[in-house]
Predict the structure of Carboxypeptidase-like regulatory domain-containing protein.
Amino acid sequence: MNIQHLFTFFLFILVLSSNAQSIVSGKIVENTKEETSISNAVLITNQQRYFFSNHAGEFSFELNPNEHVDQILAKGYLVYNQENLSSLIKMQPSEASIGTRLKGSEIAEVTKQQVASSNFQFKSFSKTVISNEAPDFVLRKDLDFRLTQSRGLQQKINAISVEGLEGVIPKMVNKDIHFFNWFQTYVKIFEDQFVSPFNNLNKSIYEFYSIYEDAQVEIISIEPLLKGFQRSFKGVLVLDKSSLKFKKIQVTLYADYKLTLSTEFDNKLGLPSATELYISPGDGGKKVSFFGGGLDFGRIQKKNPKQDKAKLVHQQIYFDYKSGDTISPFSKQLSKILEDRDYTVPYTYWEELDYDFIKGKALDTLALRLYVDKENVKNRVKRISAFDAGYLPVGIVDIDLTRLIKVNNYEGLRLGLGLQTNQSFSEKYRIGGFTAYGTQDENIKYGLNVGKLLNANTSTWLNAFYDNDIEEVGTNSYLTDQRVYSLFEPRLVNITFFYKYEKYGLSLQHNFTPQLMSELKVDKNSISQTRAYAFENDGNLFENYNLATATLGLRWTPNYTYSKVGRRIYIDNEFTPEITAQLSQSIEGVLDGDFSFTKLSAKIDYDFQHSWGSLSSIELGGDLGFGDIPLMHTFHAFPNSPNKPTVLNRFSVAGIKSFETMYFNEFFSTKLATLHLKHRLAPFKLSNTIQPELVLISRHAIGDFQNPERHQNIAFNTLSQGYNEAGLEINKLLFGFGLSFAYRYGAYHLPEFEDNLSLKFTFYLKL
């Protein structure tokens, strides 16, 4: 640095130091014509305090008495000579200031020492403000935390409120603005997962440079190896050399949206003491909203954020830390606990706290109330939350959206209505029912169910039900499968083989832990046929028959986290694996049951999230049946190819986990194993609205059938030689629609090339 530069730099220090006890703000840019912003520049004061420029190169902080900025550092830059340094700082690119490259293993060693192996309890206050054209969204939380070896991080919510809304909806509790743990493999902000710079598995994704060091601290720059990689951050950290713990971390992102996230740490414990997060619209292509569903209240970014001035400011502090092996987790195995969902926290609760940042009521409360009423925000928020699970709340009942419209080859157009009482009706009781009419079979189907909550902590429900409906032959439904809602169910369109049933019974739903749920069901089932079929048993042919069945289902999701809001348990975060098992026993002679048979089923789903944004999925399933089993209750591998002669005639909708080249009713099994492998690449961003996803697929099935000759008036094959199918999907080409291609190969390859080929469209839409 020459004498002129040095003089100017000290002039800059003098300007800053003359403003003691004042806010210092400015912007740091490159000394180029474009004046590109420099993020994560470090401003060091003579009192050994450290401040960073954000994603836009901006900084703002308050100096203490007699404090001034001593140095300004940024990887690859030097301060450049100019006037008015206090408001706009230009830095000159310089290879000499790149710093010393560190090994990822060195950073990994530090992270191991960041937090002592112990149990902790502490408190937290947070405030989130989202500003756009609508009145400000203001979310406040008062939390008690437990961080233990046995159950990880848990929150007990003492108070929570969104200004302008009464009561609490689950999304207010479950939506995490940002992650707590910097040192896991992935960190989450809103709905997006990012690659953590501090996990040993990710050391090939980031590189680290030491850009400053003295006796007390070392400042390290964090750079992603892949420039423009949207799932990684740029950043900077301050390492305390005496404790070998991080004092402060900041990361920035300038991609679909822009963010700056910084955390200060307790120097003794190594846990966060304060966090600040700023988000503003970026290049677009992603909706970012607290509630979603097109609601402006709480929206940060539209998909095309041109001239969008929205922003999010989140502040959170952690305090009153206590540690020790005697600290126990909260009694319930839950990640978040809110005992009273109906309590509305008055603003005076927050006003009485001794922290200025959490105060600040809306300037125009009348405008907020008028907006909430005019836009029907309260009801829309409830509907958005319910819609995620396939319900539309109307007063004290929820409309079951999965029952409104369906299409299949037996019923034609199936028009229906399903209703279920919600918590506005009762926390302890629920009543539901459905009715449907098929335009082709001209029959009415209907059902009724009632339930009583026996224990809220274990989600124990006793239910009674009656159904008169139809079911696909060979379907094996797991009792404990979580409800999966889509605008329509693709396979239903092509199904031709159903049976009728009239069923009544009781069921008991119980969660041993939130991660281990169970359901026990006993029922009496009367079966009749929709086409010519008979089952031979002990020399008699049965077209219609009765079953008395007991079924036990278990579902284990060891890595899921759950929250309790009021009396109900909700999924907080979903992380595979998901393991499901079911045992069903039909008993002859009980409740006029005609047959005795046993069915066993199990499956495991596992997803592998890759750091570059792709996802690999595996589902392995097995089914076994023995005894006197009619064809209706055997197994199929979810075929999804219509029985038509040409590829174009078979053009329809691809399923989610179905064999696209396997024809309906081609195979049935009493023993069956299936394997589905998928690899989804990161989306290709062609524009903000067009971001297709390429998915590579491999599916396999093998099975057998016991005594096929007992099943009359139907011909089918077994899977004893193994069925193989390979395919690919190009999803979300336009308005959620895409294309699917699949090809059958191996032992069941058909002579005509065209008969082995499947061409369909896909539909994936997130509202």
